[in-house]
Structures are given as C-alpha cells and as structure tokens.
Amino acid sequence: MKLSYLADLGKFVLWQKEVFRKPENWGMYYKELIRQMYDIGIGSLPIVLLIAIFLGAVTVVQFYYQMEGTLIPPYYIGYIVRDMMIIELAPMVTCLVLAGNVGSTMAAEIGGMRQKEHIDAMEIMGLNTSSYLVMPKLIAAAYVVPILVCVAAVVGITGGYLASVPSGLFTQAEYVQGLRAFFIPYNVVMMLVKSVTFALILVSVSCFQGYFVKGGSIELGAASTRAVVFGDIMILLADYFIAVVLTT
Amino acid sequence: MIRAEGIFKQFGDQEVLKGIDFTFEAGKTNLIIGRSGAGKTVLLKILVGLFAPTRGRVWFNNIDYTNLDKKGILAIRKEVGMLFQGNALFDSMTIEENIRFPMDMFTPMTAKEKLMRVDEVLERVSLGGVNPKYPSEISGGMQKRVGIARAIVLKPKYLFCDEPNSGLDPKTSITIDELISDITNEEKITTIINTHDMNSVMEIGENICLLKQGKLAWKGNKDQVLNTDNEELEAFIFASPFLKKLVEAAKKNGATSLENL
Questions:
Q1: Are the Cβ atoms of A126 and B74 closer than 8 angstroms?
Q2: What is the ipTM of this complex?
C-alpha cells in the first residue's frame, strides 16, 4: 500500500512535465482558461460567501464569550477577527471548501472524459491532453482563488461586524478601532501565498486523480473522493509549512 | 501501409497478444475480426499508439511508430482519424463544435473555412443541418456518422474504427459499413476496422485478419472467406447455424464467391 503511494507520487511528479508542455494552440487554451476562471470563480462564489460570513460571525461571538469580563479591551475582538480571517480562516477554509466543491468536480469531469474515451480521442488528434485539460485549470485557479480568498476575508470581517455591532456586543467604533489596530501588511502577503499554493494543490491533486482513473463509475466516485481527501490533507500540510516558513 | 511486426502485449500476468504479424494494406478496408476477448481492441489501440506493445513494432510505411519521439508521434497522429466504439463525442459541445474541434486546435483556417468544412463533412455522412444539436439529441447511428465526420475532417491518411457497428440495428450497420468503405475509396484512406460483425466481413473486408486468443488465426479477403478450410474462421463466421445452412446450400448450387452467392 505504501509503495503504491510512492509510485503515485513518482507518477505525479513525472506527469508535471506533460502538464507544463507548450500549448499547441494558445487561443484554445485561452478559451479554456476563461471558462475555468468563470467556473471556479463565479461557480464557487455563493458557497464561499456563505461560509465566510458565518466564520466571521462565529469568531466574534466565540471570542466575545471568552473575553467577556476580562481586562482585554473589546476592540481587540475586531483585531482578532481581522487577523484570523486574513492569516488563516479565509485562505484555509475557502480552499478546503473549494477542494470539496471544485476539486471533486474537476476529478469527476476529467475522469468521465477518460472513461468515455474523450481523452483518447483528443490524444489521437495529436493533442497533449495533460496540458490542455490541466494547465488552464491551474492558471485559472492561481488567479481566481486568491481573489475568492480576499473576498472571503472581507466578507468574514463584515460577518463579524454584523454579529456584534447590531446586537450590541460592542460599538461600531470599537470594532473599527480593532480592525485598524496593529495591522501588518505582510499578513496579506502570507494570505496570498497560501491561497496560490492551496489553489495549485487542489487543482493538481484533483486533476491527477481524474486523469488516471481506471474502471467504472464506482472507481470514478472513489477518485472524486480521493481528490477531496488528498487535496484537504495536502492543503493542511502546506498550511503548516507555510506558517512555519513565513513566520520564522 | 501499416505493418504490425511481432506484436506482443501483456497486462500483468495475462498475455493478450502473442506475436501478431500482419500488413494492413494502403487504400483498402482492412478488418481485424475475432470473438470478444481475442485482442482486437488492444491490437487496434497499439496500432494507433494508445497502448505501447510489450514487444514488437508498428510501421507506418517505413517509419517505426513504436520508437518515435513525442514530435514524431504527433506528426503521425495528425494523419490519423479514429472512430471510437462509444463515439467519444464531447457531450458538452454541439455537433458543429465537435467536428470543428480538431480544426480549431490544429489549423489556421478562418471561421468561414471551418464552417464550410464542417458542412461538407456533415453532408458527406448525410447529416446536413444537425450542426446546432448536441450528441445526446441524435440517435446512436447518427452519432456514429458524426464520429466519422470528425475523424475525416482533417483529411487523414489513416482511419481507425473500433467496433463501428456495435449497438446498431442491422440496417444502420450496413449504412455505416458502406459509408466507411465509400470514404476509404474516395479519399484513398487506409482504413482499419475492428469488428465482429459478419455483414462487415462479407461486404467490405478487402484485407482481413482473424485473431483467436491473441494469435493470428487466419488472413485473407472476403472472397476467400467462403472457400476457406480454416476451422477457426469457419467457427467464427458460421457461428450462426442459419447462415451456415444458407451458405452450404448456395455452395451446392455452384456459388464460389460472394458475388454469385
């Protein structure tokens, strides 16, 4: 079992050479890139917004509960929500959700094409299918996911505001004071580094699972599940390493 | 001309092809026949380069296809069209987009030229006007014809067809066979068809190889089929008792070839 994971890792590494080969036709790749940007960006926006707003709201409520009655000033909660959303929650939770949403769709789409011989048909035409089917997705995700993550961060912070100020936990002035306190622009860089890395991970893992699927619908379902599971694990690992590297 | 030279193919412990030597003649309709599991599809996929043989070589004229680099393989593939058993039409694209896809990808043709070529090949397969439909909106026989249209849109030198009659009624099967045969003759394409359809063998088999359990069991043409004493071929062709009785009766009446059967 362990050997098969190692073999898959080797296959994955060697496959990257095919994925990043020069496109046969830039125009067709560009068309596919735009389609993928739309699918990843617009397609995932509602779920990302929904999750982000509740993340911010719950964070505020939980921290207020922890800090109530302590000497820590209430505006600190705005500061905590802002940094949690920017540094950790927006990039990681958004990408975990995208691994489930976009990743499983990509694995199923490419796996379905493999099973219906669409990939063979493209190969016979002389097309490098690894590149055509994966590269536009990678580039699209590398552009769109950081935008989604930024939106998630803003919406999360707004969610925190909506959960606290109208309900009277603290005032708008206190929340805004917290948002403006101790701001370190480098944290935004960290968020963008995380989001690009996670985007590349979730797309490449999902496409790999779909591209090399064998068998029938059960195997396709399993590949789709593996795409999500391995994607999530890789994202969590990468999150830890990026945190270690960028904060020490 | 395509030549298979000592082709072996193994999947795990199972040896599917055991030394196939056969020449697929240029400009003819070549058939690979045999029962299910004989290795027909594997041989076809090796010829077209989707599988690598465990041993042996595939020659396209004087070019050793099995030892080509990526660039050489792509150059050969530009001369190849293929009709897949399940058609392999891209279901999220319209018929027109399906047929235009190879042109979009590999040719500098203008949009107008591409549209003209799409209409031309669709007319050739008697499907004029289906351009805006999706594959799911047309019948299985029509999908086969669209598959043929897409396969020939770039004017290939070689046409490969994997079970073109599978899932079709006898009459539609004959139409597809005739279409492939006519296109082969008109365009002077080298066509290789993998089939177990007896009508195809009798109607369009200009050069036939019979596979049995991964080995070449017989080779010849449709006229030689009737007069063969090869047991494997007889068992395969005349598996239907009705057909066997019919042919035996015709032979008693002096029939010696398909034309006077």
A1: yes
A2: 0.86
